[in-house]
Amino acid sequence: MRMILPTVLMAFSLGSHAAGEDAYNVVYTAHGDFEFIRDAVAAAVEGQGLKINHFNKISAMLDNTAAAVGDTRKIYLDAEQMEFCSATISRQMMEADPHSVAMCPYIISVYNLPADPKTIYISYRKPPLGSTPKSRAAFRAEEKLLDAIIKEGIQ
Question: Could you read off the pLDDT of 71-85 as tens digits, one per residue?
């Protein structure tokens, strides 16, 4: 078993990269098992000394409410979000601008699509630019943290 794990991790790292970025979202991809990658990203969050407050089961919610909204099309095979916060960065954010409370907790989403179950997407919402030098610095620190967590989780 000890020999298999490095091989599995290497297979994930060879196929992982930043898939895209737009004004509101940064998306990375990895190839492999959804649960393995989700757990690796969660371990990377905890490895930063942070506590995951909650896992949102997005695909389960959509599946459970599909009939009620009249659309049974399956959007995700699996989709979960993990919520967590950094007391240090969040304090800096909110001291710079108390209205930044809306940016906490941080959320990383992990999901795959029915057409390609082995491609796993890992994403987060881009923090805003900030309106002051202190808020810009805090939001840059948040984004740096989120990027570091995802890169560690999919390496």
Answer: 989 999 999 999 999
Q: Are 41 and 110 in contact (CB under 8 A)?
A: yes
Per-residue burial over 137-154, b if 16 or more Cβ lie within 10 Å, else e, is: ebbebbbebbeebbeebb
Q: Give the phi and the psi of residue 49 in degrees, each rounded to 5.
A: 80, 20
Give dist(CA 37, CA 43) in Å, integer. 10
Q: Enumerate the β-bridge partners of residue 21.
A: 26
Place of tokens 């393995």: 36
List the end-to-end C-alpha distance of the chain, in Å, as a whole number.
Answer: 19
Phi, psi angle pair for 106, to nearest 5°: -80, 150
Q: Are 53 and 83 in contact (CB under 8 A)?
A: yes
Q: What is the pLDDT of residues 126-144, one digit of tens each?
A: 999 999 999 999 999 999 9
Of 44, 7, 52, 65, nearest to 122 by C-alpha is: 44
Q: Whose structure tokens read 């948040």?
A: 142
Q: pTM of the entire structure?
A: 0.86
